[in-house]
Model the fold of this input.
Amino acid sequence: MMISMFPELAFLARTLIFPGLLFLFGLVLFCDWFERKLAAKMQNRMGPSYTGPWGILQPLADYVKLFSKEEIVPKQANRIFFTLAPVLALALFIFTLFFLPIDGAYTVSDSAFEGDLIFVLVLVTAGTFTMFLSGWASGNPYSGIGATRVLTQFLGYDIPLIALAACPAFLARSLCILKISASQHVPYALVIPWAFLLFIVVLQAELEKDPFDIPDAETELVAGYETEFSGRRLALLRLARDFQLLFGAALTTSLFLGGPAGPVIFGPAPLWQTVWFIAKMLLVLVVFEYVAAICARLRIDQLMRANWMRLVQLSILSLAATVASAPLLQLITGAV
Done:
């Protein structure tokens, strides 16, 4: 009642608490723990076990430790970009999550507009460019190579990602993420599985997950564009990467898995919508981690060849197949 009487309180509650900053920070730490536990299970390891029940507080402990560590800045580094790049990357990836309907609506409730899918993809491109800046600004040759790989890999795989994201947008007849999510009477992952599977592969490369983790390949580049980072700067950079992974899983959920759609068993609908959204996100993370666990790292030439000679063509064919079969698919699924 109090919140409805004061719209400013509702705005602050949504942006700062739920589903805003505090909720997103808690969710990204939980997903980090879930991912590490899952990878450990697949590789016959224990994973986080000591900090908190079942090691669930280990990601938080890791960030607390990093924030307390000494920061070392190389003499040859560009201090301005070396400091600003991790902050900007984190801010951009958090902002993109405000445009995904975690509880059935955007974090800023009146922020929906036609074309926000394109806007979000542009924001992600800008966030990835800041990661390139972080490696370039450090002045380390290994970081420079890793940063170049970030830019080369992202710009190359951005083309098939946009083409595949257009497939559910075309079926929904909208470029609004909220409308695409709400239009899925049947999840688009089942309606256009060819686009969904390719989207997972391309997104794996966009997120630099194995086998596409060549920008920070430790056997070649020490730690890639992160090599010279330490302390708070390293914590912010790794937190930005965690939010990037969270965004990738959330975007897949919104475009192909119906977003927060699911049965409301009892209680308020936003609660169950959030539960279904997170459950679907965790399913996407399982797929990401399974691919990462069973695949060996690609070489840079193999990665670029796979993109330009395979995935670009397949993504365009997927879009063409979706456009050609759209009337039949909409008839079958009952989409309007």
